[in-house]
Fold this protein.
Amino acid sequence: MEHSLADEMGLFITIHDSGHIASLLQNWPEKDIKAVCVTDGERILGLGDLGCHGMGIPVGKLALYTACGGMPPEQCLPVMLDVGTDNEELLKDPLYIGLRHKRVRGQAYDDLLDEFMKAVSNRYGIDCLIQFEDFANVNAFRLLSKYRNKYCTFNDDIQGTAAVAVAGLLAALRITKTKMSDHTIVFQGAGEAAMGIAELITMAMEKEGHKQEEGLKKIWMVDSKGLIVKGRDSLTHEKERYAHEHPQMKKLEDVVRKLKPTAIIGVAAVPGAFTEQIIRDMASFNERPIIFALSNPTSKAECTAEQCYTLTQGQGIFASGSPFDPVTLPDGRTFYPGQGNNAYIFPGVGLGVTACAIPHITEEIFLTAAETLAHLVTEKDLSEGRLYPPLCSIRDVSAKLAVKIMEYAYEHNLASLRPEPSDKEVYVRSLTYSTDYDEFVVDSYRWPADSMAVQSCKL
Ligand code: NAD
């Protein structure tokens, strides 16, 4: 595997630095950090345990804070917590830069995390945002519930994914002219993405006036052992919530035939899991079946955009985790599949949360982000099959998300910035980083900024 230096520009903290994290943070040259993205590299999506090489993830995510949200890069700090790796190949690799031992788990791991969270908030303030990325299931859920009411933190794999997927569903509801609570949803996969999305769907149903238990009953999950039902073995605490009274079933095809869902969401990284049979069945009992093949990368998608649109004769409402080209059906209709990329959510959430100094990020903030994103999809986008605004409008999308989050935060007494900015949009935009040059000096020749813009437009 190749790694460039740019992949690894961040702060490395190892398990052997325990007791010294506060002084390590002093080594980072920037003092005004507003957003930290941290990983321990254990479950880098699609690639598994990358150990120390997981640093590319926080670096990349924070680059998106700047590129998509406008967060000044110097306010962003990527962190890799190196606790070892269980990746044998890396342990044997003479060029591996990380600790050469198995992952440290248990109390020592927890102590490191506790110390890290405390050190970050002591140095950069209690409102410094800490985004968790690519932690394994076993740590992701429990660390989120441990820290969410104590620090300004969220887990993007759980909550960011949830918001982007629910935004897609809310946009789909504008097509089907239905409410969230009218739907029965089957997940293929019951990991971080599925749990996060299901939680936010339940909240959206509650907002429509339904009790939480009623919402939970409309959500079903299939994991590697089959349909999650009451009494089945291998049920974690998170899975228990979605275990209903029902006979056990192994195959997704049988589950879909039996439950007749209105929406299926693929988040198990099992390529082709949405078979021709499943897609045809979905179209047979739904006028507009919702089919989200969210697994990444493209090679892991549950079905392709073309399969969805062709097999449903253009009736399928499709979103994917990876990009797909537009699809033209034999009757001439062209559909533009929506890509449910988390980059629609976390830069805007980060911008909004840091702009008004929200000390704890509630789940409602993610629902607000999802609703705002869905609202930004135009009727024209919907008519062409797009469930998300075009990616080229991402800076504007992020700013609008940030403004809505600020409005929500002040309304619900969550913001600690005082006085409350009267024009939040102007305030948010005043904080964002501009990539425009005032002027550009090349070989002693001074190019005015607008002439550079003309030059780059011509390229
Ligand atoms: P995860 O490891 O937490 O969960 C994977 C789940 O799939 C587990 O519950 C596992 O039991 C289940 N699974 C494995 N094999 C299965 C099988 N044969 N049949 C049914 N279920 C099976 O991973 P995650 O974070 O939930 O991510 C899952 C997928 O979703 C990945 O491909 C990821 O790229 C994708 N994802 C997409 C987005 C997005 O599009 N915005 C965001 C996050 C994750």
The longest helix spans residues 156-176. The chain has 18 helices and 16 strands. The pocket of nicotinamide-adenine-dinucleotide is lined by residues 45-46, 137, 157, 161, 164, 188-194, 222-224, 267-270, 294-296, 300, 321, 340-342 (CB under 6 Å). The first strand starts at residue 11 and ends at 14.
